[in-house]
Amino acid sequence: MPVSDTNPDLALYIHWPFCRQKCPYCDFNSHVRTTHDSAEFGTALCLEMSYMAKMLADRRALTSIFFGGGTPSLMPPAVIGKIIAHAEKIFGFAPTIEITAEANPTSVEAKIMTEFYHAGVNRVSMGVQSLDNDILKFLGREHDVAEALSALDTVRHSFDNLSIDLIYATAGQTLNDWQNTLSQALAFDLPHLSLYQLTIEPGTVFYTRQRNGETLNLDDDHAADLFELTQHITAAAGLPAYEISNHGKPTAQCQHNMNYWRAGDWIGIGPGAHGRFTIAADEYKNLQRVGTATRRSPAGWLQSVQKTGHGIDNRTHDGADAFAAEMIMMGLRLTTGVSIQQIETICGPRGEWLDDAAVTQAIEDGWLDRNQSNDSGMVTDLRATDAGRLRLNHIIAMILR
């Protein structure tokens, strides 16, 4: 599809697929491997980055880099440094670039994060997941609460920009249980928290256990109660939600994820990575927005990169309606919502992708808010209410044509 000539932010996602063990709730592309050559994979990541850069319509400075996984904190710091240096050489860096690495809160990985800092990482997202030992055991985590707290203390010596992940709405968890955990987390005075309800994803160990009759998470009504409690407590503590599951001080919102939710451009490299960005291909008269997905198998991806320079397994071209749907789906996750006029500028008339009657119904139901700023009374800005964020998938299906 033709896209506007504006230049959105450009982000880079690097997927490191290796873990020491697979968590039973995890549906990410992660593999338990101990025999891979980290330096070889680092070289391949740089090769694929160079290939993807050549596809871009324009070479913009990166505003963010995100090392995800898998378990990126298992990467050798020298490999992290090599990838960051290569990215700076290929793209250049925006003055305020955010470079995030996910990390597990084990003592070994916490010590390595100091070396990550010297390699160029300036933000850490730590997968604490719970401050209750019984829940940590249930979630299959390697660490206990004491080790997590020790790791957090170690990492804070190097990083001011630090976030922790917590999972809630596990089976049997009460409002009081979750309030105590949240209070303990907020006492750390961190600038950012990612707070996720436990969902049971197909292909996971938890999915199999659930199909066999186990109850692993709370029902929707009780989970909603915990969600509402979360909004109240975090807002009162100065870390309001800026997205469904993310809470932070205004200066600590994750730039990389904000780029996703605003439907910006990002390149994804590594096994099973996804990207969406603007290209200028000879066979098209206009700029085109494409989606890329690389091979999921680490060995297959590595072989492909070494042979052809990339591991792209699937490449799609977005139509205007697909891009509009992406901007609606992602933008409504944000508490600020979306600009319908901006989407029209990029994707064409709203009537081709938005059902205004359904929008009006969702507003009457109390699920969406709008700000009418033009004479026609058409929706110019749209955001989900607190009640709407609990049923966002239903609302999106309802309002998109």
Overall geometry comes to: globular
Overall radius of gyration: 21 Å
> What topology, given as strand order, has the largest sheet?
9-10-8-7-6-5-4-1-11
By DSSP, the count of extended strands is 17
Strand percentage, roughly? Answer: 15-25%
What is the fold's blueprint, element by element?
Elements lengths: L9 E7 L1 E2 L11 E2 L5 H18 L6 E8 L7 H15 L1 E11 L3 H13 L3 E7 L3 H6 L6 H12 L5 E7 L6 H12 L5 E6 L7 H7 L8 H17 L4 E3 L2 E3 L6 H7 L3 E5 L4 E6 L8 E7 L3 H11 L3 E6 L2 H12 L6 E2 H8 L8 H9 L3 E4 L9 E4 L1 H4 L2 H8 L2
Parallel strand pairs: 1-4, 1-11, 2-3, 4-5, 5-6, 6-7, 7-8
Antiparallel strand pairs: 8-10, 9-10, 12-13, 13-14, 15-17, 16-17
Helix pairs in contact: 1-2, 2-3, 3-5, 6-8, 11-12
Structure description:
The chain has helices at residues 38-55, 77-91, 107-119, 133-138, 145-156, 175-186, 205-211, 220-236, 255-261, 298-308, 320-331, 340-347, 356-364, 386-389, 392-399; strands at residues 10-16, 18-19, 31-32, 62-69, 93-103, 123-129, 162-168, 192-197, 241-243, 246-248, 265-269, 274-279, 288-294, 312-317, 338-339, 368-371, 381-384. The chain has two domains: 10-260, TIM Barrel (Alpha-Beta Barrel); 321-399, Orthogonal Bundle (Arc Repressor Mutant, subunit A), CATH 1.10.10.920. It has 401 residues and is an alpha/beta fold. β12 (274-279) and β13 (288-294) form a beta hairpin. The longest helix is centred in the first third of the chain and has 18 residues, at 38-55. Strands 9-10-8-7-6-5-4-1-11 form a nine-stranded mixed β-sheet, sandwiched between helices. It has a three-stranded antiparallel β-sheet with strand order 12-13-14, with no helix packed on it. It has a three-stranded antiparallel β-sheet with strand order 15-17-16. The chain starts with 9 loop residues before the first strand and ends with a helix. It is built from 15 helices and 17 strands. Helix content is 40%, strand content 22%.
